[in-house]
């Protein structure tokens, strides 16, 4: 990992010492510090931050209600106004303490308030730790279109504290694991094998040792970070991170109107569909496909029979994806477990058939 970016990511208890030093060195008064939380992270995570950095009790706390539906421009304006009223200036620092919704919105606000202020991410969900706060892009929703507005903006520090996972709901943990499976599938077969082992252990015991969590989260961050470093603006290689997301996003939008499914579940099912497509166009072996399908179905099964009309609807959703070029749906597809190609074009009939295969 690039030295500069490596210094930016700090782990567990010792991270708070470095955060304290950073803040003391970089602000002249605690009144220049703003902490963005939602009602849940205020209750479960803010006390931990105060435990390590007592002086932050005198900073400004900005609280919003939890929920993806809050991730929009109106909430961002509200946050900007609150920083403005509390006399935020170019020297202010925004600390985002929460899941992907908080780090996305906080990162976006930091990038636009007074044309950009410094910010620090402290992700408190598994998805936030391994994905949303790594990669340095943030997105907010425009109506029902996910992440349609956003910016690329790098935090000054990224603090990963595994202890926050203790209060996170199981379903959030399992959903976050889906992106970690993805890292194994696109880049590292051994990590895929480890994820298979430890996810089963988690299901059995409803917890994992801190040492194991540290390993899994660090490894995920390193895999994503290495990809992002090579292609920060998503012109090429970074697209492999979209594996499972082309169909995953379509499933997420489709089920939004029925019974909302979590992002991780949609992506896991997207990965099964897209692995089947990879197999059908002779990229992936049948053996690898079967292994992926059985592993992911065990954790993320959604039993639903799509009608032809519904498949057409989802196909339409995919055609509107902002990542497409020349009206062609662009896929990232597997060559084998641990290796992925991007910019793959697939016939419409194979895409549609992937929905009938379940
Ligand atoms: N910018 C990116 O590159 C990127 C990548 C992936 C996902 N995302 C975005 O991230 C968002 C999803 O993130 P998420 O899954 O973290 O959702 P979230 O922020 O809504 O968090 C999920 C729930 O967990 C609660 N929570 C957070 N930390 C907790 C803790 N420690 N204990 C108990 N409860 C806690 C939250 O209040 C919320 O109710 C989506 O909006 C997605 O678009 C962004
Ligand atoms: Zn995702």
Description:
The protein is 53% helix and 16% strand. The protein is an alpha/beta fold. The chain folds into two domains: 165 residues, Rossmann fold; 186 residues, Dehydroquinate synthase-like - alpha domain (Dehydroquinate synthase-like, alpha domain). The strands form three sheets. The protein has a six-stranded parallel β-sheet, sandwiched between helices. The protein has a two-stranded antiparallel ribbon with strand order 6-7. The protein has a two-stranded antiparallel ribbon with strand order 9-10. A hairpin with a 2-residue loop joins strand 9 and strand 10. The chain starts with a helix and ends with a helix. 42% of the residues are buried. The model has no long low-confidence stretch (mean pLDDT 93). Bound molecules: nicotinamide-adenine-dinucleotide and zinc ion. Nicotinamide-adenine-dinucleotide binds next to helix 3, helix 6, helix 7, strand 6 and strand 7.
């Amino acid at each position: 990992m690039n030295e500069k970016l490596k210094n930016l990511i700090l782990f567990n208890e010792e991270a708070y010492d470095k955060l304290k030093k950073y803040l003391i060195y970089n602000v002249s008064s605690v009144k220049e510090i703003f902490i963005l939380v939602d009602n849940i992270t205020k209750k479960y995570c803010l006390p931990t931050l105060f435990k390590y950095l007592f002086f932050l009790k005198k900073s400004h706390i900005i609280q919003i209600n939890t929920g993806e539906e809050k991730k929009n421009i109106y909430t961002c304006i509200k946050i900007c106004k609150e920083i403005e009223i509390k006399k935020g200036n170019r020297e202010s620092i925004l600390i985002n303490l929460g899941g992907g919704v908080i780090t996305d919105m906080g990162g976006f606000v930091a990038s636009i308030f007074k044309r950009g202020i410094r910010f620090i991410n402290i992700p408190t969900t598994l998805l936030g730790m391994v994905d949303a706060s790594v990669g340095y892009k943030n997105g907010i929703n425009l109506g029902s279109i996910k992440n349609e507005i956003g910016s690329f903006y790098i935090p000054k520090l990224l603090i990963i504290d595994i202890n926050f996972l203790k209060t996170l709901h199981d379903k959030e943990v399992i959903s976050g694991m889906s992106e970690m499976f993805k890292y194994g599938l696109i880049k590292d077969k051994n990590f895929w094998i480890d994820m298979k082992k430890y996810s089963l252990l988690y299901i059995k015991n409803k917890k994992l040792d801190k040492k194991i969590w540290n390993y899994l989260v660090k490894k995920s961050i390193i895999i994503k970070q290495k990809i992002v470093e090579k292609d920060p603006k998503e012109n090429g290689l970074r697209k492999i991170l979209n594996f499972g997301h082309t169909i995953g996003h379509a499933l997420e939008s489709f089920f939004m109107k029925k019974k909302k499914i979590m992002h991780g579940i949609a992506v896991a099912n997207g990965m099964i569909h897209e692995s089947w497509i990879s197999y059908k166009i002779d990229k992936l072996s049948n053996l690898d496909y079967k292994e992926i399908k059985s592993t992911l179905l065990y954790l993320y099964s959604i039993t639903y029979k799509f009608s032809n009309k519904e498949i057409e609807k989802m196909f339409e959703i995919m055609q509107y994806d902002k990542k497409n070029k020349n009206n062609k749906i662009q896929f990232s597809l597997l060559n084998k477990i641990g290796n992925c190609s991007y910019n793959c074009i697939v016939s419409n009939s194979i895409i549609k058939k992937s929905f009938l295969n379940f």
